[in-house]
């Protein structure tokens, strides 16, 4: 397996498919998953002539289950370590959910300053801020995220079954077509990772204010968000983020869920390809 070792000694697993001289696309997965969550996108884009790269965030998937560094700063720095080792240039960075926050911080602090990034796509992404505060009254209350932590600590395996079987893919909606394999694959990916990384990751994706990251991103950036996202509500994410991006565009999808990249892959892949080639 392929690994990059970060400056603080963490082994980060990555996949690297396709021609080395093709334009690279690097994918950043959501919590608590792994690079496997990008299967539908990696197969699609490598078939369309791109070089595709995806890594497992520290503590997730096949990367080292370290105790520390489960925050956006380390997430972004780890992604940059992969990009540097692979010498990725003119790259497109695509992030889903927590991975969208990782992309925003990566581009603002590493990718743009190093001249390595061309475009970014944020899918159902957490920026600018999920937590309800005095300055962000539309956010979700701390009790929601405390509930995540309590459920994870009490019975992580059951919690990681309930989330995909319910709100993540909208399988709790009346008339939804439920895909048992998708639920099991979500559970498999989650349980591959470490409980400490997942527990600490709740704070990272809920409490990190990325307002200034978004303001700093000058490359073309596309925001994609499902209008029935029950995990990252669109009104407190995409609708705010687009107002902060100097060079952003927004596309929303009526009725689609937080997990639309998997259950509506054909639609999302076509829209991302059009943006990248445009």
What features would you highlight for this structure?
Rossmann fold; alpha/beta; 8 strands; 278 residues; eight-stranded mixed beta sheet
Describe this structure in words.
By secondary structure, this protein is an alpha/beta fold. The protein has a single domain (2-277), classed as Rossmann fold (3-Layer(aba) Sandwich). Helix content is 42%, strand content 17%. It has helices at residues 39-47, 72-85, 98-111, 142-165, 180-192, 195-207, 211-216, 238-244, 260-263, 265-277; strands at residues 2-5, 11-17, 24-28, 51-55, 91-96, 117-123, 221-226, 248-253. The chain has an 8-stranded mixed β-sheet, with helices on both faces. Strand 1 and strand 2 form a beta hairpin.
What's the short version?
By secondary structure, the chain is α/β, with parallel strands linked by helices.
| Total domain modules | 1
Total number of β-strand segments? 8
Percent of residues in helical segments?
40-55%
Strand order of the largest sheet: 1-2-4-3-5-6-7-8
- Nearest-integer average pLDDT: 98
Terminal-residue CA separation: 34 Å
Taken from the alpha-carbon principal axes, the silhouette is: globular
Gyration radius, in Å: 17 Å
- What low-confidence regions span 5 or more consecutive residues with pLDDT below 50? none
Largest sheet: 8 strands, mixed
Q: Mind telling me the CATH superfamily name?
A: Alpha/Beta hydrolase fold, catalytic domain
In CATH, the topology is named Rossmann fold
Strand content: 15-25%
């Amino acid at each position: 397996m392929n690994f990059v070792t970060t400056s603080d000694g963490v082994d980060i697993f990555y996949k690297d498919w396709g021609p080395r001289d093709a334009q690279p696309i690097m994918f950043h997965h959501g919590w608590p998953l792994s690079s496997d969550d990008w299967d539908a996108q990696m197969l699609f884009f490598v078939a369309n002539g791109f070089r595709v790269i995806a890594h497992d965030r520290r503590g997730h998937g096949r990367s080292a289950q370290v105790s520390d560094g489960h925050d956006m700063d380390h997430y972004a720095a780890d992604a940059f370590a992969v990009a540097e080792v692979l010498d990725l240039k003119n790259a497109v960075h695509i992030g889903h959910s927590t991975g969208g926050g990782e992309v925003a911080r990566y581009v603002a602090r590493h990718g743009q300053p190093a001249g390595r990034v061309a475009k970014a796509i944020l899918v159902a992404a957490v920026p600018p801020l999920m937590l309800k505060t005095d300055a962000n009254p539309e956010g979700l209350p701390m009790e929601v995220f405390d509930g995540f932590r309590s459920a994870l600590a009490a019975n992580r395996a059951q919690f990681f079954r309930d989330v995909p079987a319910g709100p993540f893919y909208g399988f709790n909606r009346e008339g939804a077509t439920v895909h048992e394999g998708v639920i099991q694959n979500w559970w498999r990916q989650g349980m591959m990772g470490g409980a400490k990384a997942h527990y600490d990751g709740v704070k990272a994706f809920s409490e990190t204010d990325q307002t200034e990251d978004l303001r700093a991103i000058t490359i073309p950036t596309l925001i994609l968000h499902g209008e029935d996202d029950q995990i990252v509500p669109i009104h407190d994410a995409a609708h705010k983020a687009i107002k902060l991006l100097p060079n952003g565009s927004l596309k929303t999808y009526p009725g689609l869920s937080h997990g639309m990249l998997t259950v509506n892959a054909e639609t999302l892949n076509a829209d991302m390809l059009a943006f990248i080639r445009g």
